[in-house]
Write a structure and sequence with these properties.
Helices cover 38% and strands 19% of the residues. The chain is of the alpha/beta class. It comes from Paraburkholderia pallida.
Length: 306
């Protein structure tokens, strides 16, 4: 039989010691200040030692408290990890995702931190490959690739993303005040931000929705759309984006769509992985958590076997 004080007392002690404040510990654990004081006092009585010393409104740990805190933190971390393993079997080790630069820059960083916190047994690696590459990254568990059509991925499990469309986005400040951006014709006065070297994507959008527009006098070209979006956030100009690369900025209002008109992407994103990994819990858990499944075609039904 293990001789242990109540777990509730150890949790109260750990929270109070970490915050150096009983009130903040009470807020974290959703109990009263007096409940924390009672639990700490009961723990001190059980251990027959003093764990805290008052210094004004804050508390400081004694030497015994410092020693105990280190061990209790390790024990709670181990218990949390064990519970996570029990609830989510197979969620240990590492998960490596390789994405084109624009998605690695704009989309994935928003979710990896929260995913790692949810599954502490997993170490997540975000790898970056060239936006034009159609080669599966052998170092990755999941590779996201952009291609004009299905490439030669015969040996892999392939899930196409739903078709994406491009639309103009800009900083809200560009549609306010005099000489603001109000209609497609106004684009002639603004800098167009490109994610390609030849301006083909913007040329396609302008050809369909603003054919009479004279060529904009100012153009900036970037290596990928992630950098173009960053320039748009800095009010440099207007860029073309999609729901994957600019979704979060549109939700928060940091970017807006000045016009509703879109053009279809000439290519599509594909999720590619080794077939043997298709049913691994860590892969499906990440895609669910990252919100990728709404973007994937028939993720839960048989995947393209090529």
């Amino acid at each position: 039989m293990r001789k242990l004080p109540p777990l509730s007392a150890l949790r109260a002690f750990e929270a109070a010691a970490r915050h150096r404040h009983f009130g903040r510990a009470a807020e974290e654990l959703c109990v009263t200040h007096s409940a924390i004081s009672h639990q700490v006092r009961a723990l001190e009585e059980a251990l027959k030692t003093t764990l805290f010393e008052k210094q004004g409104r804050q508390v400081q740990l004694t030497d015994a408290g410092l020693r105990l805190l280190h061990s209790v933190e390790q024990a709670l971390d181990m218990m949390a990890e064990a519970c996570s393993d029990a609830a989510h079997p197979g969620m240990r080790g590492s998960l490596k995702i390789s994405a084109p630069a624009e998605l690695a820059h704009r989309f994935f960083p928003r979710v990896i931190g929260e995913f790692a916190q949810r599954y502490p047994g997993l170490t997540v690696h975000l790898l970056v490959h060239d936006s034009e590459s159609t080669e599966v990254n052998p170092a990755a568990d999941i590779t996201i690739l952009y291609a004009m059509s299905d490439a030669d991925w015969t040996r892999y499990w392939v899930a196409p993303f739903r078709a994406i469309e491009f639309f103009p986005v800009c900083h809200p400040g560009l549609v306010e005040g005099a000489d603001s951006l109000q209609c497609p014709a106004d684009l002639a006065r603004f800098c167009l931000l490109h994610d390609d070297s030849d301006g083909k994507t913007w040329a396609t959008w302008l050809g369909i929705h603003a054919a009479a527009l004279s060529a904009p006098s100012r153009n900036l070209h970037f290596a990928h759309s992630g950098i173009a979006i960053e320039a748009a956030l800095q009010k440099v100009g207007v860029c073309l984006a999609d729901v994957l690369t600019a979704g979060e900025e549109l939700k928060t209002g940091r970017l807006i769509r000045p016009f509703a008109m879109t053009v279809p992407s000439p290519g599509n994103y594909y999720l590619v992985a080794e077939r043997r990994k298709r049913k691994e819990p860590r892969l499906s858990a990440f895609m669910q958590f990252a919100g990728l499944t709404p973007f994937l075609c028939e993720f839960n039904s048989p995947i393209t076997e090529n």
